[in-house]
From TrEMBL:
The keyword Metal-binding applies. Keywords: Aminoacyl-tRNA synthetase, ATP-binding, Ligase, Metal-binding, Nucleotide-binding, Protein biosynthesis, Zinc. It comes from the Bacteria. Residues 7-137, 169-296 form the Glutamyl/glutaminyl-tRNA synthetase class Ib catalytic domain. This is Glutamyl-tRNA synthetase. Belongs to the class-I aminoacyl-tRNA synthetase family. The keyword Heme does not apply. InterPro entries: Glu/Gln-tRNA-synth, Glu/Gln-tRNA-synth_Ib_cat-dom, GluQ/Sye, Rossmann-like_a/b/a_fold. PANTHER family: GLUTAMATE--TRNA LIGASE, GLUTAMYL-Q TRNA(ASP) SYNTHETASE.
Length: 351
């Protein structure tokens, strides 16, 4: 059975969208339209303490300003909590998650004690460690996923389905990770290998409030919407492996992934306040033309190619022309793998 292609834009309204987000949205848009895919807009607003009330409308305005059109009404995560809850209840029955009452401090202290084995609580037969979960031809990986945070040491993992639950509000649910090495093929990063028992460990699928965490919500949403391609920042490469574990548990096919290199400041570090104001709303307010932002995103994505048009040619291109040309020539193999540097101060540069 073949599925019609579905792509998505998934802004988090935890603050303003900046240049890096714009570049990722544009690449997602060009890819979607180049495959005649449906493109949904999903507002990832379940991270409630950090969500800003103004940021959802501003993200919608930013996309419209850049000429990025999506299909259908926005899907809003806080309106979908029942869907996440149903999956969590099944995971509890299947003993694939367990309640964890540890604080960050407990985890750091327990993890600093010496241990020798995998930090996953899921048992797999001994010989199945040979059995790499693989989705592409065998050759050397382009990237190995590294641990990002302290790996959960398994303190609460002895809980079994049917045991008493701790008091509500005192625990998150943690997913028992399958420790077998996994490989996935990313459209930009290439072949990525991950050893989940060592670099991921058991990870939370809810917060202590009981609300679904990002890793779970994103998978349930992408499955329900039939998403076939995920385009997002390469800070989420490790998350693709956590999410892949949830797909495998649910018996669903994961989407294709394209993790776009981050946009960095002129010191090579991740965009931050010290690099000046790179909010899209700010460029809009300062009278920057959206064509300048789109031209920048296009040239940092495809500008290394011999057939990329010279600036004398593109000087008068409208937004619609830019999108038409980029959609027409879009192919993943042509997308730059380099990090993109934003000049400082960027407003002058775009004007
Ligand atoms: N909401 C996330 C972001 O704004 C993207 C998550 C995803 O695409 O899976 O970075």
């Amino acid at each position: 059975m073949t599925f019609p292609p579905v792509c998505r834009l998934a802004p988090s309204p935890t603050g303003a969208q900046h240049l890096g987000n714009a570049r990722t949205f544009l690449i997602a848009y060009w890819s979607a339209r180049s495959q005649n895919a449906k493109l949904i807009l999903r507002i990832e607003d379940i991270d409630s303490p950090r969500v800003k009330p103004w940021a959802m409308q501003q993200a919608i305005d930013d996309l419209a300003w850049l000429g990025i059109e999506h299909d259908g009404d926005p899907i809003v995560q806080t309106q979908r909590v029942g869907h996440y809850e149903a999956v969590l209840q099944q995971m509890l029955k299947d003993d694939r998650v367990y309640p964890c009452v540890c604080s960050r401090k407990d985890i750091d202290e327990a993890a600093s004690a010496p241990h020798e084995h995998s930090m996953s609580s899921m048992d797999v037969p001994h010989d199945s460690h040979q059995n790499i979960v693989e989705d592409s031809q065998s050759n050397q990986p382009d990237m190995f996923v590294q641990a990002e945070t302290t790996i959960y040491p398994g303190t609460c993992a002895n809980w079994r389905a049917g045991d008493a639950m701790p008091p509500l509000g005192s625990y998150c649910l943690r997913f028992r990770t399958d420790p077998r090495p996994m490989i996935l093929h990313d459209q930009i990063v290439g072949r990525v290998q991950c050893d989940p028992g060592i670099v991921l460990g058991d990870f939370p699928v809810t917060r202590k409030t009981g609300v679904a965490a990002y890793q779970l919500a994103v998978v349930v949403d992408d499955i329900d919407a039939g998403v076939t391609e995920v385009v997002r920042g390469d800070d989420l490469v490790a998350s693709a492996f956590r999410q892949r574990q949830i797909y495998d548990y649910l018996g669903e096919t994961p989407p294709a992934y394209a993790h776009v290199p981050l946009v960095v400041g002129d010191d090579g570090r991740r965009l931050a306040k010290r690099h000046g104001d790179t909010r899209l709303s700010q460029y809009r307010d300062q009278g920057v033309a959206p064509e300048s932002i789109v031209a920048w995103a296009a040239s940092t994505t495809f500008g290394h190619r011999d057939d990329f048009p010279q600036s004398q040619v593109t000087r008068d291109w409208s937004l619609a022309r830019w999108h038409h040309e980029m959609i027409h020539q879009f192919e993943w193999s042509a997308v730059s793998r380099q990090r993109t540097i934003v000049p400082h101060p960027s407003v002058n540069w775009f004007q």
